[in-house]
Amino acid sequence: MTAKIERYLAENQVETPCLVVDLDVIAENYRTMNRLLPLARIFYAVKANPEPAVVAMLNGLGSSFDTASRGEIDLVLGQGASPDRVSFGNTIKKQRDIAYAYEKGVRLFAFDSEAELEKLAESAPGAKVFCRILMECGGAEWPLSRKFGCAPEMATDLLVRARDLGLEPYGISFHVGSQQTDIGQWDVAIGRAAAMFSAIAKANIDLKMVNIGGGFPAKYRANIRPVEAYCDGVMSAMQKHFGNAIPEIIIEPGRSMVGDAGVIQTEVVLISKKDYEEDKRWVYLDIGKFGGLAETMDEAIKYDIATDRDGGETAPVILAGPTCDSADILYEKTEYRLPVELKVGDKVKILATGAYTTSYSAVNFNGFAPLKAVCI
Ligand SMILES: *Cc1c(COP(=O)(O)O)cnc(C)c1O
Question: What are the EC numbers (predicted)?
Fold first, then answer.
């Protein structure tokens, strides 16, 4: 947690649950990535944290944006991004939304199927298109699985078809899975992309760009290697597979850009036991899976938790949210310990929650308001 967030929470009685975002951390993350990957263009993945203040600040720093819907396109254009800094990166788009984006000036689109390519040819004539290839996402704590991408052989054929349909076959993209800690996954993916560049050259198509997606991890409970290690890994893989013909590089960081910039302030609603013999307390917070902590699904993302009573004796807990849905348990299998002295009404901070929290919060499930955010 940053000193700025600590001070803000000490000086303001925020109504919980509330996400506090330190914009300086995001700016620093952006500058660091720009410095470490000077050959790459950064397209911030808006879904990670779509707060207008975050978008406006990144726009001011010169960032581009990876968007997935008409709503995200309106958001980034509304915050001043010019359409040449916007990519419509979702491979699943309505025809009318493609037309809308094109009319607004967006000229860079993702696809992974023939049907999507046909929509693009009709509603975004002449646009630059890139094909997403399948990745297994091994090692990722939040894998994106087989829902996206197609096999490289199919992608090669589709890029040739893109040209025949009057589009500009521009490049290859992939996503190695979110919260990916295995640097080797980028090597595998970049190797595949390079092989496709060669295969497509045989059809006289000169691809220009590799989009290495997102996936860089944020620091939760477990230690991770510094962002330098991931950027080095990416650049070594580019050199290894492309030699001195390195194409344009796009990177779409979401989690690694905003994750460590936020803290959720919550409150303990109830502490109870179900049985006289039970040794674990149930601790119910005023936020759960539906209030923004969706990534605790299958206990995938393990957030660090802090209380004002830290330092004293601790005991194991089961952590749960406040709604009347039994899926709304945060951690039951994963060991979490909280202070024995913890009381109802205490504040509990969930750390590194700047990514995928407000954007995942339900609008009004069980009458609980969606997660609020303040950007400072
Ligand atoms: C979600 C998403 C990202 C961001 O991924 P992170 O793992 O949060 O960095 C990047 N690109 C695409 C296409 C995405 O869908």
Answer: 4.1.1.17
